[in-house]
Design brief:
It contains 10 helices and 9 strands. The protein is an alpha/beta fold and about 350 residues long. A hairpin with an 8-residue loop joins strand 1 and strand 2.
């Protein structure tokens, strides 16, 4: 009984010690390195304080890029963004006018700092690659330094380094066209803007990223499965993006001790997605795809930009320091399904589930 009481007292004392948030050290009797353990709070924090993040492809507050900016900021990172020159003026005007003030509010109720904006056209690696007709274009008037190399140099000059690099870029001039109708130039333009741009950015940013830095790019399930309506060579571009990510995971891991991953994001009614298909007043392609996801994904909740923002913050944080070369699905599980359960082909089928299945019209 005496021994039992002594053990109970030790256990009780240890619980009280841990509850106070103190740090304790367990020594290995064989002389191995001690392990420090701190009692966990009720939440597992993502701490990016002191980190510099650059998110390429942000032009409004409705897409995944902005959600990533907010979540990185929420975690304490200093965030700057790259914006396509033709829409830069509108984005800056909306920020300065206060139109986006509500979108700057963090979960704490405080406003995040307005991110520094760099003009970026990721189809140009260097200033010499920019053709004269682009330089003279009114939408580029007064702008310089928007090639990938120039932006990387500017961030190095302004911050000294870049800890987190996010590629949230995609563009295809013939995105509404089926692959059987896509021209060579349209196909290559999609690959240039949507996949090679990531390779080029990694080439130029990796040298200014410290050990442990993280690269992240946004993909889509069309990289590996047929998605009707997602044309212009974009499915091929996303497949290239994911393949390049896996190759780069080895190359930059060994050479720079950096990590790289992709997020395969589900359907979101962003400004860019809303531009695919649908005449004025008609249902857009992305609205059809969102309905498809709600009817067929394992989780029937609407996908929110914050879902991707939170996943991005995790992948870019020290919590994911052993994760690289991974394509993470953030799509309510849609990529896991092989059949469309709302298909007319299943009309009248007795599923045997005790929960409702989609109705057939």
């Amino acid at each position: 009984m005496k021994i039992f009481c002594t053990l109970l007292g030790c256990i009780t004392g240890a619980k009280a010690f841990l509850a106070g948030g103190e740090r304790i050290s367990f020594s290995n009797p064989k002389g191995a390195r001690s392990t420090n353990v701190r009692a966990l709070d009720s939440t597992l924090p993502i701490d990016l304080r002191g980190k510099v993040a650059f998110v390429a492809g942000v032009a409004d507050s409705a897409g995944y890029g902005w959600a990533i900016v907010k979540h990185l900021s929420e975690a304490g990172a200093e965030v700057c963004v790259g914006t396509w020159p033709p829409v830069l003026g509108i984005f800056e005007k909306n920020l300065k006018s206060g139109k986006l003030d509500d979108d700057l509010v963090l979960s704490s109720g405080e406003k995040m700092a307005v991110p520094k904006i760099y003009p970026l056209d990721a189809v140009y690696d260097t200033a010499d690659d920019v053709p004269d007709d682009v330089k003279s274009n009114k939408r580029y008037a007064g702008l310089t330094g928007y090639s990938i190399t120039e932006v990387a140099d500017a961030i190095k000059a302004d911050y000294g380094r870049c800890d987190i690099l996010v590629h949230s870029l995609a563009n295809a001039p013939e995105v509404k066209a089926p692959l059987m109708q896509v021209s060579r130039s349209g196909y290559l333009a999609a690959a240039s803007a949507s996949s090679y741009s990531m390779v080029s950015m990694v080439q130029r940013f990796a040298p200014i990223m410290p050990n442990g830095g993280s690269v992240l790019a946004l993909s889509f399930v069309a990289a590996e499965r047929f998605v009707p309506g997602y044309g212009g060579g974009m499915s091929s571009a996303k497949a290239q993006l994911e393949s390049d990510m896996r190759v780069l995971s080895f190359e930059i891991g060994r050479q720079y001790q950096l990590r790289i991953n992709t997020i395969s994001a589900g359907a979101l009614k962003s400004r860019a997605a809303s531009a695919i298909g649908g005449a004025k007043g008609e249902k857009t392609y992305i609205e059809y795809y969102i309905d498809h996801s709600l009817a067929n994904a394992p989780l029937t909740q609407p996908l929110e930009a914050d879902d991707v923002g939170a996943a991005a913050a995790f992948l870019c944080s020290p919590l994911a320091k052993a994760i690289t070369g991974v394509n993470l699905y953030v799509d309510n599980g849609l990529a896991a399904t092989a059949s469309s359960v709302d298909s007319r082909a299943f009309e009248g089928y007795k599923w045997g589930y005790d929960f409702p299945m989609p109705p057939y019209e």
